[in-house]
């Protein structure tokens, strides 16, 4: 699961703070200072990419050195304009956030590249992923909407939806699984097939 992926289908989910009252799960190794520094890094990386400037430096905070997967969501005036990430937590978080923010601004195949004039209404959100956990078809009941993201893989086909996507559409567990399968280019019931791998994961979601 070392591949890069887009995170959602077509729309933007409002910022979801981590901590009390949030359906997402705060990473115990990330401090408020880490989150603020990583969110700022994501914005700086987007702005540098769009303006053609040098990549920003990695902030000197402990959280930037943690090995985690992460996705960066870029929105302009409330509309999704890019979301890309890396699933596997085999690299330091700071460089991953910087690289995925730059990629989300320019390389998401669903959208044209961001233009400089769009930066005035830019919002950036970071989702730091927990370790993916296998989910058997018989265990769908343990999938918690708003808490769990879903990753589906069958052969070379793969799809991922972040935890904050399902509540936006009012999906239940089976609808979320079906949507993730469709995201992978598979049939909606592919998650039930023996050759399909399904994983859930938690995410610490924060923005500016």
Query: Radius of gyration over alpha carbons?
Result: 16 Å
Distance between the first and last residues' Cα: 29 Å
Estimated helix fraction: 10-25%
How are the strands of the largest sheet arranged? 1-3-2-4-9
- Uncertain ranges: 9-23
CATH homologous superfamily grouping of the largest domain: Hypothetical protein ph0010, domain 1
CATH class of the largest domain: Alpha Beta
How is this structure best described in words?
With 208 residues, the protein is α+β, with helices and mostly antiparallel strands. It has two domains: 4-130, Hypothetical protein ph0010, domain 1 (Glycoprotein, Type 4 Pilin, 2-Layer Sandwich); 133-202, Hypothetical protein ph0010, domain 2 (Dna Ligase, domain 1, 2-Layer Sandwich). Helix content is 24%, strand content 24%. It contains four helices and nine strands; from the N terminus they run βαββαββββααββ. The protein has helices at 32-51, 93-106, 165-169, 173-183; strands at residues 4-6, 69-76, 79-86, 122-129, 133-134, 149-154, 157-161, 197-201, 203-207. Strands 1-3-2-4-9 form a five-stranded antiparallel β-sheet, covered by helices on one side. A four-stranded antiparallel β-sheet has the order 5-8-6-7, covered by helices on one side. A hairpin with a 2-residue loop joins β6 and β7. α1 packs parallel to α2 (93-106). The radius of gyration is 16 Å and the shape is globular. It starts with a strand and ends with a strand. The relative contact order is 0.22.
